[in-house]
Amino acid sequence: MSAPNGQIPPESAGNKAAGAEPIRMRTLVLLRWVAIGGQLSAVIAAWAMGLEFARVPVLALIAAACAVNTWLWLNPPRRVSPHRAVAQLAFDLVQISALIAMTGGMSNPFALLILAPVTVAATSLNARQTVAMGAATMVMISLVAVLAVPLHDAHGDQLKLAPILTLGHWFALVIGVAFFAGYAHRVTAEVAATSNALFATQMALAREQRLQHLGGVVAAAAHEMGTPLATIKLIAGELANELRDRPELRDDALALRESADRCAGILRSMGQAGKDDLLLHAAPLRAVLEDAAAPHAERGPLLQIIAEGPSIRRDPAIIHALRNLIQNAVDFARSRVVIEAEISGSHLSVTIRDDGPGYPPALLQRIGDPYLTSRRGGAQRKGYEGMGLGLFIAKTLLERSGARVGFANGGPGAIVTVRWPLSRIIADQRGALGDNPMQSV
After folding, report:
1. pLDDT value for 34
2. Which of 107, 219, 226, 308 is the most exposed place for a label (fewest CB within 10 A)?
3. Which residues contact 342 (CB under 8 A, 6 or more apart)?
4. pLDDT value at residue 221
5. Which of 223, 256, 279 is where one domain is finished?
């Protein structure tokens, strides 16, 4: 069991799917209006303090941002492609850099705002585009440091940092680009991966519930189809009796009656299975484990179930989760998988052991995280299509049912332990009513 059951999609989990909008234009426009408001406030405050700077070019840059934003507000594009988002963020980067260069450069206390575009890029664009924006930001920071126009106070004295402080400020901003962009991109990727994995979990659970309730639909269909099939059979029989002097038509009527009998038999068996499945909300512990292990019984390794105990809740989520754990064990077992259940005190424990190579020690503490590893061309056995994200889905579903899940290695192979409080797993002893007892007359 050298790796958890999970597959990585073609793109990294943090990246947007192909064709999806990385960020809405409305969001970019609103952020830019906030930036423009802050820029105007800073200009007015500096003006009120008597600071001397190139007011006309500064106001022209702010007016340019207003014009671009107004045009986008009135003529929003139908969709924002990654390239369009990069272009908008690049415009913001150049505009902010030019403003800072015209208002003191590294001595401007608002120089930190030059990191805003690359931070937005890190949360919405892929790694390559984020790196490109980061490199462009570092270039602009360097140009601002070299080409900065110094500020002057009301007395005409130049406001300028010492060279060592200017260099330190430049280093701080460059380091900030790498840190903020890298941190924001990593967090966004992990949040996206977890969201995608939770969505996959919900889809898997919904699929199991649909399969369980399908039996009820089949039972209802069998009930509703019974009457018309009986009518068809009756009419076909009467036609056969009436057509004794016309053998060719009589044979057709008899074939129709036989087909109706066959359909009735099929629906009867399906309906009985559907009723059994719909009513079976509780089952013996061993039966639940056998149900979970059934898809993997013929896949190679010997499956041994050691379980004796009371009836437990036959929850589709629990069965699906145990099935994923058993699948992972079968995928990496050499010859044998043991599924053992034990009740001790007020808890029920189910342990799944295999004789494979075990979990990689470096990943042991992270098993159950979404998209932990890929399984390309690896150990998955033929005969079963992996569902991906198996351990994450299993762990999530089991924890929702009140269980605690542990992963370990041990002599040899991997061990998964699932432990429930009895109050969360034992079935209600009140069962469905059975058949009425036969009475003698």
Report:
1. 92
2. 308
3. 348, 349, 351
4. 63
5. 279
* Residue 435 forms part of a structural domain: no
- Check whether 59 has a pLDDT greater than 80: yes
User: pTM value?
Assistant: 0.50
Among 196, 226, 258, the domain boundary falls at 196
Q: Are residues 337 and 408 in the same domain?
A: yes
In a shared domain, residues 98 and 177: yes
- Same domain, residue pair 383 and 239: no
The CATH number covering residue 350 comes to 3.30.565.10
Q: Could you tell me if 68 and 167 lie in one domain? A: yes
CA–CA distance from 28 to each of 21, 128, 172 (Å)? 12, 20, 26
Q: What is the pLDDT of residues 355-381, one digit of tens each?
A: 988 888 887 777 877 655 544 444 444
DSSP letters spanning 139-183: HHHHHHHHHPPPEE-TTS-EE---HHHHHHHHHHHHHHHHHHHHH
The four Cα atoms 246, 247, 249, 252 give a dihedral, to 10 degrees, of 160
The model's confidence at residue 436, banded by pLDDT at 50, 70 and 90, is very low
- For residues 196 and 56, give the distance between their C-alpha atoms in angstroms, rounded to a whole number: 49
Residue type, 344: S
Residue 137 in contact with residue 117, Cβ under 8 Å? Answer: yes
Q: Which residues contact 235 (CB under 8 A, 6 or more apart)?
A: none
- pLDDT value at position 278? 43
Stretch 102-106: mean pLDDT, rounded?
Answer: 88
For residues 91 and 143, state if they share a domain.
yes
- pLDDT confidence of residue 384: 39
Please give the mean pLDDT across all residues of the chain: 78
Does some domain include residue 4? Answer: no
**398 shares a domain with 289:** yes
| Residue 60: pLDDT over 90 | yes
19 in any annotated domain: no
Number of folded domains that form the chain: 3
Residue 93 is predicted with a pLDDT of: 92
Domain span at residue 421 reads 283-425
φ and ψ at residue 126, rounded to 5 degrees: -80, 175
Q: Is residue 209 part of a domain?
A: yes
Q: What is the pLDDT of residues 281-297, one digit of tens each?
A: 788 888 889 988 988 88
Do 187 and 208 sit in the same domain of this protein?
Answer: no
